[in-house]
Amino acid sequence: MLRLLRRTLTILFLLPASVMAQGLEDLVTSLPDGDFDDRAQVVNAIALSGDPRALNVLELLSDGQLSYLREDGRIVTVRDEGDDDVAYDVLSEERIGVVGRRDARDVRVNNGLRRDIAAAIGRMGLQNVDPAVRLDAAERAFRARDPEQIDALRAALAAETDPEVTTVFEQALAAAVLRSDAGEADKRIAIAALAARGDRDALSALSPALTDPVLAGEAQAATDKIERSIASWGLAQNLWYGISLGSVLMLAAIGLAITFGVMGVINMAHGELVMIGAYTTYLVQETIRNSFPEMFGWSLAIAVPLAFVTAGAVGVAIERGVVRYLYGRPLETLLATWGISLILQQAVRSIFGPNNREVGNPEWMSGAVDIGQMAMTWNRIWILVFALAVFAALMLVLKRTPIGLQMRAVTQNRAMAASVGIRTGWVDAMTFGLGAGVAGLAGVALSQIDNVSPNLGQSYIVDSFMVVVFGGAGNLWGAFAGAFSLGIANKFMEPWVGAVLAKILILVAIILFIQKRPRGLFALKGRAVDS
Amino acid sequence: MTAQLYLDGVERSFDGFKAITGLSLHVRKGELRAIIGPNGAGKTTMMDIITGKTRPDKGEVFWNEKVDLTKTDEAGSARLGIGRKFQKPTVIESLSVEDNIGLALKTDRSVFATLFARQTPAHADRITELLHLVRLADERARPSADLSHGQKQWLEIGMLLAQEPELLLVDEPAAGMTDDETMRTAELLRDLAGTHTVIVVEHDMEFVRALNCKVTVLHQGRVLAEGSIDHVSANPEVVEVYLGR
Amino acid sequence: MTKLIDRRMGFFLIALFIAVVAIPVGNLAIEGKPVASYVVQLSGKYLCYALLAVALDLVWGYCGILSLGHGAFFALGGYAMGMHLMREIGTRGVYGDPVLPDFMVFLSYEQLPWFWLGFDQFWFAALMCMLVPGALAFVFGWFAFRSRVSGVYLSIITQAMTYALMLSFFRNEMGFGGNNGLTDFKDVLGFDLQSDATRAGLFIASAVALVAGLMIAKAIALSQLGKVLIGIRDAESRTRFLGYRVEGYKLFVFVVSAMMAGVAGALYTPQVGIINPGEFSPANSIEIVIWVALGGRGTLVGAAIGAIFVALAKTLLTGWIPEMWLFALGGLFVFVTLFMPRGVLGVIEESWAKLRRTEPVKEVTP
């Protein structure tokens, strides 16, 4: 509030009383009056009006596109429509009608006024009431590196109170100063400011100083510092990409870790259960688009339970219909579930067609956030949060609930569990259903970053098996560690060798790793394992 | 006294669980030895260590005083002359009874030798002889999957003998056998002792008594008592382990 | 010798012999071509699949190693032959370069990569189509079997192996034509690949290779080594305690099988006229498994019949109602594992044994 007051006071101080306290309409109407000096004052007043339409007016004025009607003095733009010249009100965009050549006269501008307008447009951003607009204008000024703007930047800097904007103003000023013929002391300060910024833009802003005989040493030191800073931010960015990939891998693999790890069942149809989750999301969004468009922001929240239930139900059906007849025959289970995966794939292809289906990001998942020189997109952030939440929920289910206890009991000693009254068949179905449901959840997340097509599942199946095999079956923490270490390793290799080769190297590394630790990172050791 | 099998200070743990804790055991050539002990006493782990299936964390295991058994694998120990019979009879189910025995016969075990191996009349005679010994001569062409539990036990014993081992490790041979068969097994093992060294792990006290040999009692991965069956069953600690708590 | 050809092998060989005589004669010698040229080509392709199935049956059916990467050995054999066929094109390519294949000219290669050297000689390519898959199987198997990776873990890493190879071969930098693979072949040993006589010749060659593969596999199965393999399959631990170094046996049979698969691939490439990275896809390798499972694992002949049957069904169904093919194939996987774990030949054998009541059929001498 105080800041606003101060800004207003500055404006009041700077302007003659005649142009104060007027609306944009009045200011614009007064444009044709007086000489070019008067017009320059009006331009400044328009720039400071804070009205969002001001920019457009000033740009049109600079281009010589403004006219006034002789009849009533309204300021218009005249557009060519076929054979006619049609006047539009410059502010309201209202179509006034066809005008003759004599009815409208140009508002005249000369080069001096054009410069004033350009400076005013620059200041307009720099002194806007909204800090976000000022920040944007400051960044633009930084990239422009125009010594002409030094005065405007100084003025803006003096009036600035927001610390974040102040920093960018200083950097923009520094960039401009280095290209000007300012004194050595000013340039020293400028180099320091740029070194503190530390990104690629700062590096190019510094380049004029590198050729300066006096400042070259300092500039070189600043350049080196910036390059180090860029490198470490690059590392952080890669780490983020790796974590993000890891969260996707974990989502895809964790359901598999339950069926493979806990039950010892190879479910080759796991990828297709992920696909079912993704298509559920698609259906939910279609329904919302067609019937309740205002609910779109909630589409994922609705899809999550539905996908869990749908995929879970398919999972239970697979277990009851096929898998339960094959316990103790893991290779046969592998083949039968592969057959099921083919059937599910073709079913989806027949129903929804072979092409990608459009699944949209709700608003809260689009866009990105910058931390330093690192960009993180919101959908990736949410997927990481979602993955961690799913993991935590699963741990809770397995460790703290009766069904989790029964699952672990059946895993460890089926016969004993049965003899204390646990319905092992039911527990098997529930465990398989849980794994399948989690695959469905993964599908909701993957629909946000990948193509929703009948091949969605196939593209993840090998990767998810690698995660489980690497992490070690029988332990959810294994899948957790496996997913994140593979994700990070993959993304760290990518800049060196490219995406495909990185993936190949990871596969080869896992194949070799399995030789050393045939049962993965978090394997249960002991006599019982291989008996 | 020269020990054919020598274990000294052997230790082995699995994920923190100490299965063997300082086990020492000396078995003379030609000796018949029974090893008893409650569940979890480390009997199976001990046999896994002797046959090279499991490596000890600590301790020495020597064969005939010069071969380090901690460095061999299962096949290696078998080639040295250590034969092992599992608790649950394991035979090769889809092969015929005679092929099971044929596979166990003492021959060259290398890949190319087996690829080009021809069955000699001597081998055929030996197979017939062994089948008579384990009373499976009438079943020789049947797939071994069709045999009864007791017959499978006998077939496995037959396979063990076909290997011509110097040491036989026999895990609960009497399980699933009729009384008559049990006694016949005990008799067979007594006959084998002398020409072979025999170590029998057993729960069945009647059977151990019938073996009439030196008994080692294992408890919590170490030797609790050693001596004749009467001697160890008079030991109060042994009684407590078996009956107490 | 009599043992080598038992009754079912005998039936199969007779049927194969009739086909080998009838198909080329019907195509080449009879007026009006009652057997169309594409039928000859397709039949040759099926026989390659049959040989591939026999190779897989040898490791899976006899030794219990479920390889989900046998397609890789097949594809490597195919590439080895494809490389020879590319070199044979010579100046007849689009760019007319006497040494470099078209795709290399297109990708501005200066000279032939070292691993393409020697492939201008047929004998070298023929050797490589066995040695390369064999070497890969040896290295992979040596690592995997020595550290006792088995069961589903082994299946999964064989799948990872073929997947990694598929990704590699998709890369242009690998020097194998990338995405498009190798194609536009002109002739083999001077015979025009488009001519009916060459196709008939390749068909007969595939039949000969299949018979040879069956005989080698059967001989291995009947030897003492074959019994050790069955021992490993049924009771790996028991076999170790009998003194057999299991890893050596597995490695032997894995390598033999990979070489056999390589030969099948080498015969496949000239008949279909193209080899591309898609052949490495994990789905292809799993499909081989269902051929064997359907025919009956551990029967060799059954594997060959299963391959021919499924491949024929695929050709017919995809031409007739393409949507049904994956449903049918998927259903086949489920049906066979649930209701016919021993495959068609197993079922036949069981009912035969029931009929006779006396003793199960075992190596009956004709």
Automatic annotation (TrEMBL), chain A:
<comment type="similarity">
    <text>Belongs to the binding-protein-dependent transport system permease family. LivHM subfamily.</text>
</comment>
<dbReference type="GO" id="GO:0006865">
    <property type="term" value="P:amino acid transport"/>
</dbReference>
<keyword id="KW-0472">Membrane</keyword>
<keyword id="KW-1133">Transmembrane helix</keyword>
<protein>
    <submittedName>
        <fullName>Urea transport system permease protein</fullName>
    </submittedName>
</protein>
<feature type="transmembrane region" description="Helical">
    <location>
        <begin position="465"/>
        <end position="489"/>
    </location>
</feature>
<keyword id="KW-0812">Transmembrane</keyword>
<dbReference type="GO" id="GO:0005886">
    <property type="term" value="C:plasma membrane"/>
</dbReference>
<dbReference type="InterPro" id="IPR017779">
    <property type="entry name" value="ABC_UrtB_bac"/>
</dbReference>
<keyword id="KW-1003">Cell membrane</keyword>
<feature type="transmembrane region" description="Helical">
    <location>
        <begin position="495"/>
        <end position="514"/>
    </location>
</feature>
<dbReference type="Pfam" id="PF02653">
    <property type="entry name" value="BPD_transp_2"/>
</dbReference>
<feature type="transmembrane region" description="Helical">
    <location>
        <begin position="239"/>
        <end position="258"/>
    </location>
</feature>
<feature type="transmembrane region" description="Helical">
    <location>
        <begin position="381"/>
        <end position="398"/>
    </location>
</feature>
<dbReference type="InterPro" id="IPR001851">
    <property type="entry name" value="ABC_transp_permease"/>
</dbReference>
TrEMBL record, chain B:
<keyword id="KW-0067">ATP-binding</keyword>
<keyword id="KW-0813">Transport</keyword>
<protein>
    <submittedName>
        <fullName>Urea transport system ATP-binding protein</fullName>
    </submittedName>
</protein>
<dbReference type="InterPro" id="IPR032823">
    <property type="entry name" value="BCA_ABC_TP_C"/>
</dbReference>
<feature type="domain" description="ABC transporter">
    <location>
        <begin position="5"/>
        <end position="245"/>
    </location>
</feature>
<dbReference type="GO" id="GO:0016887">
    <property type="term" value="F:ATP hydrolysis activity"/>
</dbReference>
<dbReference type="Pfam" id="PF12399">
    <property type="entry name" value="BCA_ABC_TP_C"/>
</dbReference>
<dbReference type="GO" id="GO:0005524">
    <property type="term" value="F:ATP binding"/>
</dbReference>
<dbReference type="InterPro" id="IPR051120">
    <property type="entry name" value="ABC_AA/LPS_Transport"/>
</dbReference>
<dbReference type="Pfam" id="PF00005">
    <property type="entry name" value="ABC_tran"/>
</dbReference>
<dbReference type="InterPro" id="IPR003439">
    <property type="entry name" value="ABC_transporter-like_ATP-bd"/>
</dbReference>
<dbReference type="InterPro" id="IPR027417">
    <property type="entry name" value="P-loop_NTPase"/>
</dbReference>
<dbReference type="InterPro" id="IPR003593">
    <property type="entry name" value="AAA+_ATPase"/>
</dbReference>
<dbReference type="GO" id="GO:0005886">
    <property type="term" value="C:plasma membrane"/>
</dbReference>
<dbReference type="InterPro" id="IPR017781">
    <property type="entry name" value="ABC_transptr_urea_ATP-bd_UrtD"/>
</dbReference>
TrEMBL record, chain C:
<feature type="transmembrane region" description="Helical">
    <location>
        <begin position="122"/>
        <end position="145"/>
    </location>
</feature>
<feature type="transmembrane region" description="Helical">
    <location>
        <begin position="202"/>
        <end position="230"/>
    </location>
</feature>
<feature type="transmembrane region" description="Helical">
    <location>
        <begin position="12"/>
        <end position="30"/>
    </location>
</feature>
<dbReference type="InterPro" id="IPR001851">
    <property type="entry name" value="ABC_transp_permease"/>
</dbReference>
<dbReference type="GO" id="GO:0005886">
    <property type="term" value="C:plasma membrane"/>
</dbReference>
<dbReference type="Pfam" id="PF02653">
    <property type="entry name" value="BPD_transp_2"/>
</dbReference>
<feature type="transmembrane region" description="Helical">
    <location>
        <begin position="288"/>
        <end position="313"/>
    </location>
</feature>
<dbReference type="GO" id="GO:0015658">
    <property type="term" value="F:branched-chain amino acid transmembrane transporter activity"/>
</dbReference>
<feature type="transmembrane region" description="Helical">
    <location>
        <begin position="152"/>
        <end position="170"/>
    </location>
</feature>
<keyword id="KW-1133">Transmembrane helix</keyword>
<protein>
    <submittedName>
        <fullName>Urea transport system permease protein</fullName>
    </submittedName>
</protein>
<feature type="transmembrane region" description="Helical">
    <location>
        <begin position="50"/>
        <end position="79"/>
    </location>
</feature>
<dbReference type="InterPro" id="IPR043428">
    <property type="entry name" value="LivM-like"/>
</dbReference>
<keyword id="KW-0472">Membrane</keyword>
<keyword id="KW-1003">Cell membrane</keyword>
